[in-house]
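SEQUENCE-TO-STRUCTURE ENTRY
===========================
What this section holds: a protein sequence and its matching fold, both as plain text.
Tokens: labelled as protein backbone structure tokens, with as many entries as the chain has residues.
Question of interest: how does this chain fold, as expressed in backbone structure tokens?
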Amino acid sequence: MKYTLRVWRQTGPTATGSLVEYEVDDVTPDMSFLEMLDVLNERLQLAGDAPVAFDHDCREGICGACGVMIDGVAHGPGKATTTCQLHMRQFDPARPIVIEPWRAAPFPVVRDLVVDRSALDRVIEAGGYISTRTGAAPDAHALPVAKPDADTAFEAAACIGCGACVAACPNGSSMLFTAAKTTHLGALPQGQPERFTRARTMVETQDDLGFGGCTLTGECTAVCPKGIPLSTIARLNHDVLTAAMRGD
């Protein structure tokens, strides 16, 4: 199959970018989206042109590095799917595919489809930890955890920090990401000592970094490749308000 691609090319953070059109043939339906980009880059290099820069690592839907906007949708048309797990059979060869980087003020473009997502690391550094003794790991049954709490924690811990929620949000908010990081700690007994201060400091940090405010439009959950629910944001809001009332 032959596809027409319109790819965002930008040589650096301060350069002016634009969409450049390419044609890629010999694409099979079972190729992943990133494999198709690999084919494009091989041909660009053979022609003496600069390859398209894009982030990737595990290519197994675990690391979250591969995120791009495809036809205006974070990670593309697949539900609960990362870009690396997307296959070319989901695209109509008769229609051009537009490929762009994440669009958010805290995610400056480094080059082409690569953006700097280190702002998410700063949010985690603000409170993504627990106070506990060091030493040998305790027995698995030493600290009982209620099944609903364990399920909530595991559901939130599935977040891979790809930033799709930020890119999809009309306000550029990182609340779903922050909520996932606070929930997977705050739902467990080990995370209780810092639960409310963690929520306050992480939200304050995301605000300071330039992420927008959450208005619960739900676009974040629609594109989240791990299906983090909107209820995690409600839990985060509860914890932030509790911290304010307690003076934490």
Remarks:
- The CA atoms of residues 54 and 114 lie 5 Å apart.
- The chain has two domains: 3-111, 118-246.
